[in-house]
Amino acid sequence: MARDSREQQLIELKDTVKELNTTIKNLNALIEAANKREAEHLEKEKVLQEQIEYLTKKLFGKSSEKRDDFEGQLNLFNEAETLMAEPDPEEQEFTTVEKHTRKKKIKMTDKFANLPVQKVLLDVPEDERICDICGTPLERIGEEFVRREIELIKPSLKIIEYYSVSYGCPKCKEDAEVPHIVKGRDDQKHMLHGMASAGTVAWVMYQKYVNCLPLYRQEKDFKMYGAEICRGTIANWIINNAEDFFRPMHEYFQRKLVSGKYIMADETPVQVLKEPGRRAETKSYMWVFRSGEYDSEQIVLFHYSPTRAGQTAKEFLEGFHGYLMTDGYGGYNKLKDCTRTSCWAHVRRYLIDAIPKGKEYDHTQPAVQGLAYVDKLFDMERKIHEKKSLNFDAIKEYRLKKEKPVLEGFWKWLDCQTAIKNSRLYKALVYIQNRRQFLETYLEDGGCSFNNNTSERSCKAFVTGRKNWLFSDSTKGADASALTYSMVETAKVCGVDVYYYLKYLLIKCPSSQMSDEELEKLSPWNPECKEALDELFRKHQDAIFDAM
């Protein structure tokens, strides 16, 4: 009986132990799940805190991406080079600094050499030209320089009326059935839309697309000049003349661009209010396509599109088989006939954004380590730019010998990195890994750019203007802006005066019937065009001088 009781107790104890083990197991599972949730929350909190710091830095921090090393600070590469390695003789030869020549100080008179000069004589009143000693009338014996000032001549408007002079034969007038009459011809057919001259239209374009002056403010200026010209009229001047006379040049530039070997591209949003089938708040896009950084004939083309779809770039660059430099936007993947290259400046920005606040010089931080590799590549590229005499073959050879080892070290570093999902570092690592193939392409050809900063600078002019005029009213206005910005930015990169180039095109009236040879002569890099612009400038200066 006692034995049965002990067995019963043993069974009950075993059941209790089993229940306790089950309870412990369940509690451990709950603890593990709670710990996992807590770890996830901590990760999310860390990501959110990182995002707050990032946005705060974007809002209140300095916008420059330049990093200044403080005195005594050694980065990863400088430390290795300083303590372990002797300078490479070939590198020394490549970076030899020529004898320094102090830049000649520019005189004030040289800065204003192109301005007309009006001489004003400060004469002595006639009643004071008497000798105080003997009363004899004074004689002029010379003059001396007193001062110089710059006088701004306020813009003004005037109406120019053209009359055709007629000539008839006095003898045939009585005898002939049809008298012989000739009339003076108007060869300046530039204005097909309204009464504005080529110079007036060029000026309103210059004000909007170079000085970023919205049309409503130009309307006020015209009123101040004495003319009631509404902004709608000014808009029509721009739209109609850009379509008629800039479109042929734009299409010619596009043909030249696509036939080249290097193109750089970028895109930025623009708001168009009256776009068929779309709300006014919907984003449209202005695309920028420009020639390679080292091309002798520089071209910058803007193209308006309702969407950011990669099909836009594919259609615009149809027939292009060279190297295309872009940022990380995936829409460019639709271009299959060209060789893609990616921008290292974007890689650098991602790594800078991934550095925690206050850890900019902490080399235990992965982002700081990666940035050291990228900065080394930028330093090497800077040396290439300083050595302007190098050809593409020499640049390629230098990159393969000097930059490729650094690049290989960077990839090894990248493959060893891990990061919290959705953190700034994680996004940087994913961004770089996804573009790894395109980031190496620049090694293939010395004419390839290392970054896309050149096209971004071209795009910046549009972005600056957009901050002032905010939107385009219609698709026609957006197209006209794209055409005009193309002429403006192409003139800028070719080093010619934008206003006179716009005026020159409006005088010459490019058309689709012109041959490429004729359009070439109207291009801002063409010597004939540059000579014509100089002549326009001289005439303008002479007119100012005559009006004094």
Protein model, in words:
The chain has 548 residues and is an alpha/beta fold. The chain has a domain at 246-492. The chain has 19 helices and 8 strands. It has helices at 2-60, 76-83, 89-94, 108-111, 172-175, 198-209, 215-225, 231-258, 310-316, 344-353, 366-386, 392-415, 424-434, 436-439, 453-469, 475-493, 498-508, 516-520, 527-547, and strands spanning 166-168, 181-183, 262-274, 283-291, 300-305, 323-326, 339-342, 472-474. The strands form 2 sheets. Strands 3, 4, 5, 6, 7 and 8 form a 6-stranded mixed beta sheet that branches. β3 and β4 (283-291) form a beta hairpin. The model is unreliable at 70-77 and 79-98 (pLDDT under 50).
Q: What would you say about this model in short?
A:
The chain has 19 helices and 8 strands. By secondary structure, the chain is α/β, with parallel strands linked by helices. It has a domain at 246-492.
Features:
single chain, 548 residues, alpha/beta, 6-stranded mixed beta sheet, two-stranded antiparallel sheet, 19 helices, 8 strands, elongated, Transposase, Transposase-related
